[in-house]
Structures are given as structure tokens and as C-alpha cells.
């Protein structure tokens, strides 16, 4: 192997050349998803903000792109990515419903009678690290619940603001995350 090709490789164990990695789907797909999200959420389209977005999204896609589209054994997971993208609108809807529920609790004249903060522990049926990661973050993104601890053995400890929020766990959210990752 020539010295030039040796220098073109990065320090990854598989020795993938840097340029090949930049033009691979495992970089381009996460980069585009991150940049689109950046643009939608920031709402700023001037050169300063767009360049910050491009830099940030490049770093994120470079560091974690492989995790988003490939399994640990290197197999492609385009189905998981598509199912995850389909999951996001449902999650946003649940976040909106939870916001309304928490708002109702806060503005209720007898608020203290309805709020019952509690810590619940349950065992998830999810086996994959990414599935547990998405599930834990989905719980935390939903107002009224916070994932306090998620063990590698699948035990989740969650703080819930009231009984209704606690009873909903693990529930439909776990089922939908399981469908994403085929569990």
C-alpha cells in the first residue's frame, strides 16, 4: 500500500478512507437530517447561523453517523431509520398532549390534590442499546416524566408528576420503540 493511501485513512479500525466516509450514506443521511432539524428549529437562514449549523451537523454526523444507520456488526439499517422518522410525529403529538396535561394540572384550582410526584421502576422489554436510548429520551422529552436512571440490564427509574403519567409507563411508547428496532 502506498504512503499516500496510508495517510488518507483515518484511525478507524476498518481503515475507511476519510473522503469515502464523507461521501457515504452513514455520513450524508445523519448530516442532512441534523441540518434540516437545525434549520427548522433555528428559523435563521443568514450565513452566520447556517455556517454554525453546517459545522455542528458535520461534527455530529462524523462522530455518530455510523450509529444512526448501521448496527454494531456493520449491517445497514435503513428500515430502522425510516421507522424512527415515522415515530417522530407520534412522539411530537405525545409531547403536545403531555404539555396540555401538565398545563391542566398547573392551572387546576385544586392543583395540590392532583399532583402526586412519584418515582416508579419498571423492567423494559427492550434489549438493544439504541432502543433503550430512544425510549429513555422519549420519556424525558414528554413533560411530566423524567428518566432518572436506565440500567444496562433494562431497569428504568422514572419520575412522574402524577398518577396518570406514571400509569402510562412503559405502555404504548415502549411498544412503538420496540417496533422501530424490531424487538
Account of the 3D structure:
- It is a single chain.
- The chain is mainly α.
- 62% of the residues lie in helices and 10% in strands.
- The protein folds into two domains: 3-69, no CATH class; 86-180, no CATH class.
- A three-stranded antiparallel β-sheet has the order 1-3-2.
- Helix 7 packs antiparallel against helix 9.
- The N and C termini lie far apart (43 Å).
Question: Which range best describes the helical content: under 10%, 10-25%, 25-40%, 40-55%, 55-70% or over 70%?
Answer: 55-70%
Class by helix and strand content?
A: mainly alpha
| SSE run | HHHHHHEHEEHH
> In what range is the share of β-strand residues?
5-15%
For the biggest β-sheet, the strand order reads: 1-3-2
Q: Tell me the radius of gyration.
A: 20 Å
Overall pLDDT metric = 81
* Shape designation: globular
Biggest sheet layout: 3 strands, antiparallel
Quaternary: single chain
Record field, number of beta strands: 3
Residue ranges: pLDDT <50 for 5 or more in a row?
A: 1-12
Domain count, please report it: 2
Q: Please, how many helices?
A: 9
Distance, first to last CA: 43 Å
Amino acid at each position: 500500500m502506498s504512503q499516500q493511501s496510508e495517510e488518507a485513512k483515518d484511525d478507524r479500525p476498518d481503515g475507511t478512507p476519510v473522503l469515502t466516509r464523507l461521501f457515504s450514506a452513514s455520513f450524508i443521511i445523519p448530516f442532512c437530517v441534523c441540518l434540516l432539524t437545525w434549520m427548522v428549529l433555528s428559523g435563521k437562514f443568514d450565513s452566520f447561523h447556517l455556517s454554525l449549523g453546517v459545522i455542528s451537523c458535520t461534527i455530529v454526523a462524523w462522530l455518530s453517523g455510523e450509529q444512526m444507520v448501521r448496527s454494531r456488526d456493520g449491517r445497514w439499517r435503513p428500515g430502522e431509520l425510516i421507522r424512527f422518522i415515522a415515530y417522530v410525529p407520534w412522539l411530537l403529538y405525545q409531547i403536545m398532549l403531555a404539555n396540555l396535561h401538565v398545563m391542566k394540572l398547573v392551572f387546576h384550582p385544586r392543583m395540590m390534590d392532583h399532583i402526586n410526584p412519584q418515582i416508579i421502576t419498571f423492567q423494559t422489554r427492550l434489549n438493544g442499546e439504541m432502543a433503550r436510548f430512544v425510549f429513555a429520551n422519549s420519556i424525558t422529552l414528554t413533560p411530566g416524566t423524567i428518566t432518572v436512571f436506565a440500567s444496562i440490564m433494562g431497569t428504568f427509574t422514572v419520575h412522574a408528576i402524577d398518577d396518570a403519567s406514571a400509569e402510562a409507563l412503559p405502555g404504548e411508547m415502549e411498544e412503538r420503540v420496540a417496533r422501530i428496532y424490531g424487538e
